DNA sequence: GCGACAG
DNA sequence: ATCTTGTCGC
């Protein structure tokens, strides 16, 4: 079960300074390690859409055959504005509600956003991964932090580097004639594991299935 | 001070 | 993210 009471302390900062301090504290608990693929059976995709001041969170669970196993959604009033570098404070609350509602336990979760490719290594994937103690990976549609060369051929992954040439993730061209995606480990996963699992989850589209489906449902669920 | 800037 | 139809390209 999820300890909501404790989690709220990490999701309701009243100032940006406080939010930044929370990120620095959580970052101390950041841990990266390889994924044990033989133990992976359920993969989650996470995304959030908005209807006025309401956030609609979606978590989609699929198996290794890319078949949908479970889908949950939750709504919640938005309380934090969108500020680059602080997305988790806006989307994590409703996302965590979704995970509490989930019947199955995913072995790893892919988020629509950054993992450690963040100024303080605490993108939304890392943030939520630490709070729920769940292996996570960030799948972003653009760069927030770091520099990288543009991959030229499909299947090519270039290194996304931060301060002092530190590798934070990959810029990966998953499909022709599309913008490359930014892949970065979030929590309890690493660079190689993240790239490897994302490749196994591509199904003809730019985004890996879990994230693509989560985004699809987050839009589709507007109206019921 | 100026520019960058996930969703 | 959201406001929004058709249209060009693979
Ligand atoms: Mg999103």
UniProtKB/TrEMBL annotation:
One of its GO terms (molecular function) is endonuclease activity. Pfam families: Endonuclease_5. Its cofactor is Mg(2+). The keyword Transmembrane helix does not apply. The keyword Phosphoprotein does not apply. It catalyses: Endonucleolytic cleavage at apurinic or apyrimidinic sites to products with a 5'-phosphate. Its EC number is 3.1.21.7. It is found in: Cytoplasm. InterPro entries: Endonuclease-V. Belongs to the endonuclease V family. PANTHER family: ENDONUCLEASE V. DNA repair enzyme involved in the repair of deaminated bases. Selectively cleaves double-stranded DNA at the second phosphodiester bond 3' to a deoxyinosine leaving behind the intact lesion on the nicked DNA. This is Endonuclease V. It comes from Fervidobacterium changbaicum. The gene is nfi.
């Amino acid at each position: 079960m999820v300890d909501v009471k404790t989690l709220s302390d990490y999701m309701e900062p009243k100032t940006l300074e406080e939010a930044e301090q929370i990120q620095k504290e959580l970052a101390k608990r950041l841990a990266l390690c390889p994924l044990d693929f033989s133990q992976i059976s359920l993969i989650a995709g996470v995304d959030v859409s908005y209807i006025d001041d309401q956030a609609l969170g979606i978590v989609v669970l699929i198996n290794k055959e890319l078949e949908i196993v479970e889908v949950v959604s939750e709504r919640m009033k938005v309380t934090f504005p969108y500020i680059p570098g602080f997305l988790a404070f806006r989307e994590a609350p409703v996302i965590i509600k979704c995970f509490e509602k989930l019947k199955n336990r995913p072995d790893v979760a892919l988020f629509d956003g950054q993992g450690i490719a963040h100024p303080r290594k605490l993108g939304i994937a890392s943030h939520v991964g630490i709070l729920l103690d769940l292996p996570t990976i960030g799948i972003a549609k653009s760069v927030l932090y770091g520099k990288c060369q543009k991959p030229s051929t499909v299947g090519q992954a270039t290194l996304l580097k931060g301060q002092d040439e530190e590798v934070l993730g990959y810029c990966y061209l998953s499909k022709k004639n599309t913008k490359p995606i930014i892949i970065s480990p979030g929590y309890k996963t690493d660079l190689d594991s993240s790239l490897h699992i994302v490749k196994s989850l591509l199904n003809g589209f730019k985004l890996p299935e879990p994230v693509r489906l989560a985004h699809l449902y987050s839009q589709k669920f507007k109206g019921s």
